[in-house]
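Hi support team,

I'm filing this because I wasn't sure whether my run with fe (iii) ion finished correctly. The job status page said complete, but I'd like someone to confirm that the output block is well-formed before I use it downstream. Pasting the exact inputs I used:
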Amino acid sequence: MVGRRDFLRMSGVILAGAFAPACARQSGVLGPLWPGGDPFSLGVASGEPAPDGFVLWTRLAPDPLSKDPGSPGGMSGGDLGLGYEIARDEGMRDVVQRGSATAEAAFAHSVHLEVTGLEPGRPYWYRFTSGAAQSPIGRALTAPAPGAPLAKLRFACASCSNYEAGYFASYRHLAAENPDLVLFLGDYIYEYIETKRPTVRKHSDDVEPTTLPGYRNRYAQYRLDSDLQNLHGSVSALVTWDDHEVQNDYADRWSQDFDDPEHFLQRRAAAYQAFYEHMPLRPSRVRPRSGSLDLYGRFGFGDLLEFSVLDGRQYRSREACYAKPDHGGGHVETDASCPELRDPHRNYLGPAQESWLAASLSKSRARWNVIAQDVLMAQLRERLPDGKIGFWTDDWNGYPVSRRKLLQTIHDQRVQNALVLSGDIHSFWANDLKLDFDDPRSPTVASELVGTSITSYGLPYDRFAGYLADNPHVRFFDSRWRGYMVSDVTPERVTTRFQAISNPQDPNAALSTLATFVVEDGKPGPVRG
Ligand code: FE
Ligand code: CA
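And here is everything the job wrote out:
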């Protein structure tokens, strides 16, 4: 445990205010050494590129998995100043900005530095310093100026990285693709402890977190993984969450286990805060308050594309027809067993996010309008043993009225090239999004691409492959592979590769391309390339 006062006492120096920037400015003068461990053990990250800057992240954690709840990451005491530098080159020689950032004690000594004043549309390199300690050098990207012509962009999508289920070779291969951006679509951590299926490594505390110290240590453990840490250090991120950042299949205040909602909201607040503390999120835009966190947002990249990043968990109505044992979370219902499925008062995004999204999409002038979110949007009819058709209640299939409303907006507002990106379902899918899924003649109004899991166990392949005959809008499905998606965007088309690793239990797993799908400008629906 290193408190600020201890740190200064042990290093034998007394400095007023933020000492680290002073050290950084006086090159050649070594600052105080950090006793007890590398404060930058969790690495660095960048996110939310804007035309004039981005957010830079780190968290001081000399003892990252500290079991003392009073000293998260081995830190105690108040806010701490540290230095930062931003350069135009990898070697950090052409420094264009340096200054001081604050590691906030209230947020586990994490740093969320909003950098401005940079040139649009180019890479930068950065590092933090504290005393004699230096962070790894990270790479970050600024977005092109609004509306400026952009010829191409490469982004990758990751979701569902269960630490216990496998090694993060997917993250290593993803970083090696050199994407301009990585999108995390949820289930970045898993809260539960695996008890039934094979594991290759264990969550460090071997207990499901319900408190802030527990969630903090879960994130810290994931960030100690060198493949994930290197990915964050080399690629700027846009992030959203799904359920496992809090609890499996939760919806707003509703726990799958029927916990008292007031009690569950305390747990959710802890989980949301830990998420914020570990993600490169803009504090002026996203900051935990009163147990909630307004995560959804819009990110433009010149005239080429605009990302609408959604929050599919915080505002949704409770799962349909939950009031049966084991039905607090996702389960399969038919229209007959659960008329509530189509209750127009139920809502997936919540009214505020829903109208924000409709307004964003309607006024966008981008060539591609990418909706990045957590769960499967396409209808999935599941043929049950008795011949009836069921729907999974935890994804958009549990909220068909909200889905229809969004697709109607895309259709009516003539939103240009709507492309939905999804995770959660641990399998690759390429889908036509139909205006009305219940009418086979209905037009396709958008495309959906679903990435598989980084490591999380796949769906039973044979069972789901058996559903495809009832879902002609599904153009591709495969649940047998772990991996990610990488998309190359030009004004003419988006070309997406479904990237699969050979074996999640092998830290040196090889990579191959399972399939390629192309969406052409002006032609909704992914086509096999
Ligand atoms: Fe998952
Ligand atoms: Ca999920």
